[in-house]
Amino acid sequence: MNNIDDLRIGLIPLATMAEGIVIQTQTSALCLKVNEGKVMCSYFGAKVADTSDMHNSSAAAFFCPSPWDAATGPHAVAISQPDGQLAFDPIYHSHQVTTPAADQQLLCIQLQDRRYPVSMRLYVLAHFDSNIFERWTEITHDGESPIVIRKAASATLRLRANRYFLSSFMGSWGGEASMREQEILPGNHFALGSNSTPKGAANGSPSFLLAIDRPAAEDSGEVILGSLAWSGKWEFSFVVAHNRNLDINLGYDPAYSAYTLDGGNSFTTPRMLLTHSLHGSGQASRNFHRWAREAGGVRTNGQPRDIVLNSWEGAYFKFDEALLHGMMDGCRQMGVELFVLDDGWFGNKYPRNDDKAGLGDWQVNKEKLPAGIGGLTRAAAERGIKFGIWVEPEMVNPKSELYETHPDWVIAMRDHPRREGRNQLVLDLGRTEVQDYIYGLMDELLADNPQIAYVKWDCNYTIVDPGSAGLAWDRQQNLQLDYINGYYALMTRIVQRHPGVIFQACGSGGGRADFGAMKYHHEFWTSDNTDPYDRVFIQWAHSYVFPAIAMGSHVTESPNHYSKRNTPLKFRFDVAMSGRLGLELQPQRLQPEEIAWTNQAVSEYKRIRPVVQFGDLYRLVSPYTHDLAALLYVLENNGKQQAVFLAYLKDHRLISEYGPVRLAGLDPAKRYTINEFNLELNQKPIVAETGRILGGDYLMARGLHIQWNWRALQSVAVEIVEA
Ligand code: DGJ
After folding, report:
1. Residues 354, 320, 442, 581, CA torsion sign
2. Residue 485 — φ and ψ, nearest 5°?
3. CA 313–ligand 1 middle distance (angstroms)
4. Nearest CA to ligand 1 atom 6
5. Is residue 262 annotated as a catalytic residue, yes or no?
């Protein structure tokens, strides 16, 4: 192998490779080539029979290092060198393809700057079965004086087509992911992003769907679906030139994050996940779901998730032991498997009786809970249920003992007022002493109470004044990236030490619904908005990249505490059943018949949950374009013997008539029994085919006829099992 320094000082001629570097998955392919030292991408798309066809002449830079080369590709990286020049000109040095696992290929391309001792590695990890490509970049600085990385994308793409339709998943609190498709026209520069660290998904999921030449469809057409595994600020840009080339730049948001890198160190970008499908967005989503469940994208551990009852909307901050024991009694009566105590259980000098005080003081409040956490885990065990607990260790109320002791641990600007949100400030997780402190308190909580089976890890504020007392004046802009990497380092330690505990990621609702956090968590709290009407939309949008098992979805009281909307209990259940079902209410406020109905619905969910949590998702009718929403889960790994169909009539006009809903993904050769379940008390089935045995071919050709009554907010749940 050539010496990298010889390349730098020009002793080695710039490489040109006649042979392309080809990385393939089951259905997709990527082809790169090297031309006078530049790494070019000549193909990314559907797999083709003869790989030499992919070596076309219109290749674009795979990762374009200089804005002045932008004609050859989107500009991906900007580095200020110690001499002040904004210069980075990396040249191909070598590459390697390895096989880290049976269905994975890892490509690593090493490049070296022509002049400066700065090198770059471009990585592509291809997952054969799920067709997911993970792409990221590593920059290594071997010089002495620091360099400043002003921008470093995780991946760039150049596409050539006639038309581009971009779907985004932007949102806000209460409406975390909301889909919108727009055509991006020549001359358009389109940017998506979130300005929230450390809950990067709070303003929208870091994901996009790009449909080529025509609007996205579920079961046909070419699409690229992508998601950034990152919990901080992110930025995607899409630029269509007048010649219709589309340049896409994907990565963390570099604004306020010019990163100073000392000699001898490396900088790694977050991973960008990409999949390509010729069969519409449905297939692209199933690729993501398979990768998430089977390649560790989400910590699934292969087991179905328990049905939880979370105390938040049932008790908020107002509880004592008797009240919690009563809620646990309710869990037992309804067949719920795990009780989660949410906020409000800690703080003594400053009791956490509202959101104004106590955050940071993780000692159990002796007045509310004299028997401690141990008393609660024992009470849960006596009732045959598991116990879980809420924490928000990254944050602190100024009114807390922690803040009194360590006021310098928070993120704040020197000599500026500290701007609070929800009466709290963000602890500086970029600092190892803060990480160690949080690790210590979490380890103590979980080691002292080994019965804690579940942790809801919340995060309710954002960095607004990005200053760190732990960083030198000329390193302040490292804070936002150091924070997220510190959070990941902390989570790595905690989950390694307590591998059996289930972790939920929460960020004022869905602010941590990202694949960066999901590496350490089993699920995310989808939204504080638990109104089932709204949840149909939010969960639909999240289903593009996240599998149902990762989406915490709870049945709450009616009228809903936020929207004040009244909804039938059945509708609330049927919506929550399309994710990881849970409840979030005070069981003692339910009527005896509601308890009995809930008990029945919970036991139905236990039967169907392997299908929902591990099945393949087929989105059938979109709530964004119809009064109705319908989806189907098919359990692929038992030969499509079982499926679950859920449909929601959200809106209804008197004169509306609805045709049958055609199914998808079944085995056309199999015959299936149709069984509508979760019926309301004394309700007759409204799916006309209930009780019949029908072929998969018929169900996919004709579908199910639902005889909706004349009202909105109806739903059906149907089990479809091989006869
Ligand atoms: C915000 C979360 O999204 C809620 O579910 C709840 O846990 C509260 N925090 C508690 O303060």
Report:
1. negative
2. -65, -35
3. 9
4. 312
5. no
713 conformational bin, left if phi > 0, alpha if psi -120 to 50, beta if neither: left
Please list the helix, strand and coil fractions of the chain in percent, rounded to the nearest 5, in that order. Answer: 25, 35, 40
The dihedral formed by the CA atoms of 499, 503, 507 and 509, expressed in degrees to the nearest 10: 170
User: What is d(CA 434, CA 413) in angstroms, rounded to the nearest whole number?
Assistant: 18
Active-site residue (options: 458, 531, 574, 616): 458
- Which ligand 1 atom sits nearest the alpha carbon of residue 584? 5
CA of 458 to the centre of ligand 1 (A): 7
What is the identity of the amino acid at 664? A
Nearest-CA residue for atom 10 of ligand 1: 343
- CA-507 nearest atom, ligand 1: 3
DSSP label at residue 637: G
Task: Give the Cα separation of 417 and 558 in Å (integer).
Answer: 41
Best CA proximity match to 338, nearest among 319, 362, 311, 312: 311
Half-sphere exposure of 67 (CA within 13 A, CB side): 7
Residue 560's pLDDT is 98
How close is the Cα of 311 to the center of ligand 1, in Å? Answer: 10
With a 6 A CB cut-off, is 310 part of the ligand 1 pocket?
Answer: no
- 113 is a catalytic site residue: no
Which of these, 116, 106, 109, lies nearest to 137 by C-alpha position?
109
pTM of the model: 0.97
Would the CB of 528 count as within 6 Å of ligand 1?
Answer: yes
CB distance 599 to 628 below 8 Å: no
Count of beta carbons in the 10 Å neighbourhood of residue 11: 10
Question: Could you report the per-residue pLDDT of 632-675, keeping only the tens digit for each?
Answer: 999 998 899 999 999 999 988 877 778 999 999 999 999 999 99
Residue with token string 């991946």: 155
pLDDT value of position 1: 58
- Among 129, 528, 627, 667, which one carries the catalytic annotation? 528
Encode pLDDT of 245-272 as tens digits: 999 999 999 999 999 999 999 999 999 9
Contact between residue 165 and residue 215 where contact means Cβ atoms under 8 Å apart: yes
434, 495 Cβ separation under 8 angstroms: no
Q: Measured from the CB, is residue 230 less than 6 Å from ligand 1?
A: no
Quick: pLDDT tens for 114-143.
999 999 999 999 999 999 999 999 999 999
Which residue has its alpha carbon closest to ligand 1 atom 2?
508
